[in-house]
Design a protein that fits this description.
Yope Regulator, Chain: A; Trna Endonuclease, Chain: A, domain 1; 2 domains; six-stranded antiparallel sheet; five-stranded mixed sheet; 8 helices
Amino acid sequence: MEIDTLQKIICTSLCAQVRVTERSDGYFFVDTPFEFPDGDHYSIYLKFLGTGGLRITDRGTTFMRLSYLNDLTRFKDGTRGRLLDEVMAGSGVTHSDGEFHADVAGDQLGEGLVRFGQAITRIHDLSFLNRTRIASTFYEDLREEVQRIAGPETEVIEHYAVPGVPNAESYPVDLCVSGKHAPLYIFGVPDQGKARVATIILQYLRMQTAHEPKDERFNSLVVFQNQSQIPSKDVSRLTNAATMTVDTLEARDDLRYKMEHGLH
C-alpha cells in the first residue's frame, strides 16, 4: 500500500468522526472523537470573528467539569497554576472568565482543533493531582488548609527550627502555629520515608523539650496523604510519637477539630 493511499484512508477516517452543527446563537458545535474519562465528548465550539479567522472555545465547560471535584482557586497559584500556565502557553490557548479559547486563521483550523483538544486533555488531567497528590501539591494544599483554619491573622511558619534545640535546623517542623499556651507542630506525611523522618524529629524534639513545664510543651499533629498506603509499623511508631493524627487531608472537619484542640 502506498503512502498516499494510507494518508487518504487516515484522513477519510478522521474526517468521518468530526461533525459540525450550526447553533441558533451564532456558534458552531464541533463533535470530535475527543472525550473525557467518563465518556462525555469535549464541548468544542467555533465562532467567526469580525476581524477574520475563527475562535475555538469550550465556552466554560472544562472549568465547569473541574469544579465538580476541585476547588478552582487552587488552579490559580502554586504547582497547579504553574502547570496550567505552561499548558496554555504551549498550545496558544487563552483563559478568560472561565472560558478557554484560541483564535486561528481559517487555513489553520484543523491544526488549531487538534492543539485545542490536546490542551483540554492536559488541563483536565490537572484534576488528578487531587487523587494522586504528588508531594509538592500535597504540602501546598496542607499549608493552605492550615492557614485557612488558623485564620489570616495567625502566622503559619514553614520549615520551622525550634529555638533553643541543639541542631534545630536538622530537625525542622513542616508547619508551626502558635497556640494559646503551647505551639502546634504540624507534619505532612505523603509516604513511608517522611513517616520515618517525622517520627525521628518528633522523638528528638520531645526529648529536648522534656524539661519544659507540661502545659508549655508543644502539641503535634501529623496529616497523612493517605495513611492506608503506609506500612502499619511505620504508622504505629509515628502515632506513638505524635499527639494527634489525621489519616488524609481530605478529612477537613477532622483536621479542623484537632487543630483547634491542639491550639487551646
